[in-house]
Amino acid sequence: MKIDLHTHVKLSKKSEFSPAYFREMMAEAKGNGLDAIAMTEHFNTLRYEDIYEMLDRNYPYEHGYYLAEGIKVFPGIEVDIKETGHILIIGQRDNVLELRSRLEPHTEKGRFVDFRTLLDWSEEGGFLRIGAHPFREGTPLHHLPDELLKRLDAFDLNGKDVYAQGLEAYHAKIGEFAKRLGRPVVAGSDTHQFMQYGSVLNEFDRNFDTVEELKVLIQEGAYRIEVSPALDIKVKSANIIKGLLKKSLSLPVDDDLEELGDQSA
Description:
This is Polymerase/histidinol phosphatase N-terminal domain-containing protein. It comes from Paenibacillus vini. InterPro entries: PHP_dom (IPR004013), PHP_domain (IPR052018), Pol/His_phosphatase_N (IPR003141), Pol/histidinol_Pase-like (IPR016195). It holds the Pfam family PHP_C. The chain is an alpha/beta fold and 265 residues long. It contains 9 helices and 11 strands. It has helices spanning 19-31, 49-58, 93-102, 115-121, 146-149, 159-165, 167-181, 211-220, 231-248, and strands at 2-7, 36-42, 61-62, 65-68, 71-80, 86-90, 128-131, 154-158, 185-188, 200-204, 223-227. Strands 1, 2, 3, 4, 5, 6, 7, 8, 9, 10 and 11 form an 11-stranded mixed β-sheet that branches. α1 links the parallel β1 (2-7) and β2 (36-42). It is globular.
């Protein structure tokens, strides 16, 4: 079973959620060999609730995922923390939405929740908690206390950072970091535009239907990370297309600092 553990279903934080764009994204995910994604949309994206209203109207939710256009979509969220850094939290729909509601007062820069509090709030509920792109220049995690980092379940080998920093150098850096903390590394493409799907993914030895089952398989090491030989062209193409689409929608091209040539978000 192949899953991407860091994906987005909106073009950017400031864009409206588009059901047509979502359907296109799922079709392309499937076309790139994926069986599942973790939908780790930014917690402070515009009208976050629109995503789940559309999913609930159009797709069945069973076990712990939506079945959308042939893809298992596991609910999740990407949270900015006060100390700088992003945390991916994946779990049951109701638990994710409850956490998002709790984070409502902390959606603006300068009011982000601190790392320890986020860990405490997400301790229960069977969440899978992943440290996103721990060595990204603008939003690192490696500077945080080991005692807190060890409460995470894994760290993110991020497709955008592999593109920006090179596979060998980045893999060595994150591998040493995760080993020191006794945590595994999992792959996430950080896709906002479908060309990026398949740049990196996780292939598991067995199928799973719940996040709890997924956590066990990660802990057992029952998976392999696949890095596409076409990663560079996938990520570069996605960034170029994303920038053009944002310009056509009159959105700021640097609103989330994720355009080509800037890998800091």
